[in-house]
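Input set for joint prediction.
Command: fold jointly, output tokens.
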Amino acid sequence: MSSPRVLIVDDHSLFRAGVRAELEPLVELAGEAGTVGEAVEAIAREHPDVVLLDVHMPEGGGVEVIRRTAESGTPVPRFLALSVSDAAEDVIAVIRAGARGYVTKSISGEELADAVRRVNGGDAVFSPRLAGFVLDAFAGPLPQPESELDALTPREREVLQHLARGYMYKEIALRLDISPKTVEAHVSSVLRKLQLSSRHELTRWAAERRLVD
Amino acid sequence: MTTHGGAHAPEAAPRPEAARQHLRRDLSGRWLGGVCAGIARRYGIDPWLVRLAFVVATSAGGIGLVIYALGWLVIPAGEVPSGVRRRLPTGRAAVEVALGTGLLLLSVLLVFRALGLWFSDAIVWPLVLVASGAALIWRGSLGGSGSEAASGEASTPSVAPVVRTPARSTAPAAAPAPPMPERLGPVVAELRGALGGLVARTPDGRPTVASISRVAVGVALVIAAAFAFLQATGALSAARDVILSVLAVVVVLGVIFAPWIVRLVRSLTSERAERIRSQERAEMAAHLHDSVLQTLAMVQRRAGEPHEVAAIARRQERELRAWLAGRPAPGQVARLAPALEAVAAEVEERHGVPVEVVAVGDRDLDPATEAVVGAAREAMTNAAKFGGGSTVDVYAECTDRRLQVFVRDRGPGFDPAAIPADRRGVRESIVGRMERHGGRATITGAPGAGTEVELLLEEAG
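tokens >
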């Protein structure tokens, strides 16, 4: 598998420089962008495979970049959200907009490169925190599950719980006695549910969580 | 109160136990007291027709006014739909009530006159003044700081002062002749206290400007009433010229300085707002200085020691996040998730190992939950000490009947069966503590695969 080309989008140049220094030896860099507009342009020009996307930026942030890229008709890259924000609202919003995963900025360079490769390969990337958010969002009694999208299967829940506890995919596969590919499949399926679920409470839940948390 | 018989009596005296449809003053559609709107709503007619009827009745000898005033007094206020509630400034509401009370009394007296029971002017006009003044004063003392008190609701309590008007009207008249001059000091103090109690106060105990001026107007009205009474009865004729000229001077001064006073009050208000703003700014600056700037300075000085710099930065990050989110400071947390986070921060600080907490659900702390937090703290400490410096992951999941906490490190791991019997940390602080509170602790781990401590608390049944 050839190394994915990565575009770094973040409004803090200092942070971009840091990520660039960490990723340079590990993946191919397609460039950087510091604003929503620059990001949309750079995506159209460079056709990167993966976009490392800051959640918080002026003029709409990561959600806006994803939306405008989809509108512009250029081939849509895979987005990986990368943020210092641990507010559930922001994270859920960018995932629901179409990002393939979410990692916090405290992640190490190697782990980040690994996450980029995984997203490039079509998989979803869940940090422990995101797994926690999703479990929280899908927890609780459902009045009437309108579709199977509105609930997690017991297995998916189990996989998410292990992710939240800090286990790697391989370790989860070992513990649950399934193949790593199956773990991947579960995680991708959870991501799809998160993006397609008709549970509008998801957004409300996230908004409330920000208030109380 | 004989006159309010007639056509309006049945609807003007609703029984409290009457059904949903009984007569209420309609506060959402009102113009004044909601009497017309209430009647219109009760009988399904256009409120303007009712209002027109009242105007016509008023032109016919003032009877409409009397009925309206009685209606305002007698008909209970309807519920105000909270979304539609029209918030009147309390000041205006108080003036309305005072005006209403004065007019009400006036109309009652006029009715008495019509019936041939006329007291002298010397009593009637002072009484009207006293009623208005008393209403103002009572409003000022009952109406709170203006945060509640939509005038509709408050006009019901204002019935009380009207009833007590005679008692109040005698008080100022009797006051000028204190029987025991030597006891004047305490009396004055008492009076001051009483007046102070009349004034509505802001939450921090300061009287509101509006309530002071309202009470002042009320007091002036009552005093004026007393003077009018004395003057009319001739007792004041000697001092009349003096008082007249003093009054004239006061009025003139008031007219001259009114704009200046208004401006002064306004500038005081804006100055106060500005002061609050700058206080907030100063507070934020102080916080940033104490925390972020100090940390940055420390980071620069210790640039050569990456571990320490990372620890300092992380501690600062936690603190700043908590501050931004408005979370309670550690130590006053009464919920599980913040308590776990506080414990994690503490362990992280002490051992210099990152501790990540992910919590799903939350609950209040009780003795059993606190035991779980305590056991988790011990588990985190162990993970930080023996985990070889790897990140410690803490995951808490909380439902109504189940609380689970996982503490995991990726260190060298160890065989739980091989814990020496004298290792109190694990045996007592984790396993024993959980068991004492009806839970259990499971430690899994294998050499080379890290260690995980699972704490489980399940409600029976």
